[in-house]
Amino acid sequence: MTTSPRPTNPRYRFLEPAALQELKNLRFIAKRIVEGSFAGRHRSNIRGSSVEFADYREYSPGDDLRRLDWKVYLRTRRPYIRTFDEETNLTVLLAVDTSRSMDFGGRESRGARGAALTKLNYARYLAAALAYLVVQSRDQAGLALVANDLAGWHAPGSTHRHLDGLLNLLERAEVGKSTRLGAGLESLFTLVRRRGILILVSDFLDENLDDLFRMVRLYRHRRFEVILFHVIHPEEQALPYGRNFRFVDSEGGGELEVDPRDVEQGYAAAFEAHRLRVRNLALGCGCEYEPVETGVTYPDAIRAYLRVREAFAR
Amino acid sequence: MSPLHLWALFGAAAGAALPVLIHVLTRPRGERRLLPTFRFLVETAQHTARRNRLRNFLVLLARALALLLLGLGFARFMQRAPEAAREPGERKGRKVVILDCSLSMKATEGGVALFDRARAAAQKVFDEPGTAEGELVLAAENARAVFGKTSPNLVALKDEIAKALARPERLRAAAALEAAARSLAGLGEAELAACEVVVVSDLQRGNWAKASFAPLPKGVPVRILSVGRDGLPNLCLAKAGISGLPEAGARFFAVADVVNYGRESAEVRVELAFDERAWSSTLQVPAGEVKSLSFELADVPAGWRAGRFRLVPAVPAADALPDDDVYPLCVRVQPAREIALVTLERPGEVGGPAYFLQRALESSPEATVGVARYLPGQLEGELDEALWNAELVAVVNAGLFSEAQAAALGRLLVAGIPVLFAPQGAVDADNVKILEAQLGAALRLPVEFQPYRGAGRASALGSVFAERAGHDDRGARFLVFADPERRPFRVFGDAVTRFTATLKLGGGLASRPRDGAGLELDAVRARYNDESAALIVTQVAAGRFGLLNMALGGDERRFAAHPIFVPLIQELCAELLDSDSQHNKEAGRCGQTVHVPVGRWTRGRARGAQDTQAWTLRGPDGQPVPLTGGDFPSLKDDAAGAALFWASAGRPGPYALDLDGEPAVRFTLVPPFDEEGDLSVLGKDVLEQRLAQDRTVSVVEAEIEEDSSRQDREHSDAFFLAALGCLFLELLFLKAFRT
Questions:
Q1: Out of 2.60.40, 1.10.10, 3.30.310, 2.40.50, which CATH number does the structure's domain B586-670 have?
Q2: Is the Cβ–Cβ distance between B649 and B667 less than 8 Å?
């Protein structure tokens, strides 16, 4: 089904019409059986009244007699009830890392509407676009802002009004201090009632990655499909060119004056080691890991990801 | 080491501080960058930060040191302002510079020749402010003025200075001062007041001790820029030659005198290369002493032989003047000794003076001697070839010489053939006069001979009759003086007095010193108790003339009866033969007038000096030397045949004169080592007071300025090199710490 995207409110800084135009033909589908509240496009683990036959089972008192298969009863003199797979809607939880490390945007990069293209803003664009896609598909999208704890929460919903609230939360998101994604996800875990898809958009510059992935494993144990978007800024991937820089820790406040030429190799190796660690941990937990560079426009990143995802879903 | 300029020191310090300041003030304040991945950076940068601090420190240190050294180098370089600029008031309008170009100026100190210093000092004189005109006198054995008078063309004079070279000659200070005086001739008093004579010299004691500034006009100040340094060590071959008669088959020696003019004893190796053979010996020469060294030369074939002595000091620093370490030799080795005896006595006549003299001459213990008798008449007309081939001509009892005979003897003497004349009677007094008349100024005996009168004989005619009658009535004379230091009496050593005391001699001639004879009396080697000369040995042109005023008869009053007769005749013969001009063909000193008689060696070839195409002269390098006169030698005819004249002899070394491609004569020119080897400097006070002669003479140590400048240059070079090294080190540090 193709629907044209609804016109967006200009005050939504992170929802750009041009980007939505690019993403209009994409669907966010669940790879697994999901647990939804409403009937929808996605297969549910709930046997319901859908047209998709699933199985027979013996009648028990209280069953809807409309589902009794009379032909089987006449042949076998035993009552059997026909069960059907219920198609339900999808619940997508968007968790956006708002720690201070995400407030890094390099020097010159700007977003389409003039916002400095920090990793956080990039994550906001990404989350807003994904939420829009989800709501457009009549699925539910929720938003959680996590830093050193759960900084904001907007329960899942599938209406545009709900989307409006979600986008407003994204607008209001403030940069947190340190990064403790594990604590944030832990708080979120108690708020989520139905399993679905957890999309975590973060730079994963969390000193306690083990704690984070302990929580991720918990989500996975609850049969959540977990997708990790690793936001990487080019200027943190490689040190800038130049003779001398005084680098300041965006979270700890430490300073170090160094000639990038002296440390660029070691730094690049350390960063790559970190990225690989996140990837290995993610894949080890059965998550999807998708590194996205802020140098790539988020529609492109989403399109690339969703196409791959769709291909694997078949 | 002279002090540095303060401002330059400050500059150097500021220069050294500059990189530190630049580093501190312009240290790149790193652009502040937030970095979320800070912890990755910290992990990496921890060990590189220490490394970088060390690198920065080393680089900064090297850079600061380089600038400090550069500053010091420039401080040295610009330290000295010209003295001229400091004392402009003393400058004169006309400058006559006398530049010492003698051999001693080739001495080096610290690797720099004195002449180079002198050249620089002389050029500076013309750069002095207020110098309008100048003149340059290049002084050595002869003084050469560039223009002959003062000229405003100072550029040309400086160019001449730049081209000037030290020559292997001594300095005749008198000639140089006279040349300077000539260049100032004709100037008025006012002009002379603005003149100055500047002497640039090493003030070598030997050259300047007798200098006189009297030729210079009074009122003209003399400034002497001394480039010499007292106490310069020098090892010198002062003299070398042949001792003994160089005859084929005989032993003779090559001798050399090594002088150590330094203040410390020095070891030196003396090498002799002679006739394609080599000898070597090592000597320890005490300070200020002369050591003689001889090498025995045996089995040397007859003919012209050349060689050279060479000094090799064990410590090169002990020899400031290496130019006097080579001494050329040139010797004619005679095939056999041939003596011509000119006498009226018949060969078979026994007991006469000629008989005894011949016996004595033939009694050589070393050489094979052939004595050929000639009648005096054979000296007339064309001389017999054998006479020309004789090594010695002895004349005894030859009667009264005709002018032709005396002239022939004179020619032989001039050609270098020694003559031994033994007067026996009164007629020989006339012979001596005739001979003197023929040779003119060449033969000037210190005494005047006359017949020995004996008792009661007053007239010459009476003495003739008395001689013919016999000698019994003559009184005996005693030898009261025989020079024990020289030949022929030297061979008897301390016993000479004992031998001569027993000599009672009759006959011979009486003599009295000639008026005005001073140093010439030195030729008298033995005297009688009546003050008559018993033996005279003197040089006549190229030959030696010996006059043995002794009766050689056989009785007890005759010399021939005495035991010392034969050895004394042999020694006298050796003395006459053993002359430098005879064997060791050292023609003369560089720069001086040289006369080489060639006739003796080219007789019979019928070539005169005018036939210049037939003659070829080759120099030390084997290249032909023009025989054109002027600065070059020329050939002239004299009484003994052709002779080579060289007004101002040129380069030292062996020369070969050939006639029709055949060797005519070989000779060597030698620098005046004995005069120029001593590098001691004459005292300043001697020049300024004793030798000034009412002139204003001031001695300035020009060498200090030059030397310091040289040292400054060396120091500057060292500083610049060190600075360069520091910069190179900086590059190495950067390379080593490159990440």
A1: 2.60.40
A2: no
When the candidates are 2.40.50.140, 2.40.30.30, 2.60.40.10, 3.40.50.150, the CATH number that belongs to B235-328 is 2.60.40.10
Query: DSSP assignment, residue A107?
Result: S
Beta strands A150-157 and A140-146, pairing class: antiparallel
| CA nearest to B337, candidates B304, B366, B359, B305 | B366
- Measure in Å the smallest separation between the Cα of B45 and chain A Cα atoms: 6
Question: In B, which residues are within 8 Å of A262 by CB distance?
Answer: 45, 48, 51-52, 739
Which residues does chain A have within 8 Å of residue B45's beta carbon, measured at their own beta carbons? 256, 258, 262-263, 266-267
Instruction: Assign domain B337-577 to its CATH architecture.
Output: 3-Layer(aba) Sandwich (3.40)
Kindly tell me the burial class for residue B192, based on how many C-beta atoms sit within 10 Å of its own C-beta (0-12, 13-18, 19 or more). Answer: middle
Ordered by start, the domain boundaries in chain B are 6-79+716-736, 88-230+679-700, 235-328, 337-577, 586-670
Is it true that B88-230+679-700 and B586-670 share their CATH fold? no
Rounded to a whole number of angstroms, the distance from the CA of A172 to the nearest CA of chain B is 22
Reported as a single tens digit per residue, the pLDDT across A209-255 is 899 999 999 999 888 889 999 999 888 888 888 777 888 887 777 88
Q: Check: CB of residue B413 under 8 Å from CB of residue B441.
A: no
What is the residue whose two structure tokens read 């002899």? Answer: B649
Which pTM value belongs to this model? 0.53
* Residue-wise pLDDT tens digits, B146-164: 988 888 888 899 899 999 9
For B48-66, b where at least 16 C-beta lie within 10 A, e where not — what string? bbeebeebeebbbbbbbbb
Note whether A245 contacts B30, CB cutoff 8 Å: yes
- What residues in chain A have their Cβ under 8 A from chain B's Cβ atoms? 100-102, 104, 119, 203, 205, 207, 233, 236, 239-240, 242-252, 254, 256-259, 261-263, 265-267, 269-271, 274
Rounded Cα–Cα distance for residues B423 and B411 (Å): 20
Domain architecture of chain A: domains with CATH:
17-34+89-313 (3.40.50.410), 45-87 (no CATH)
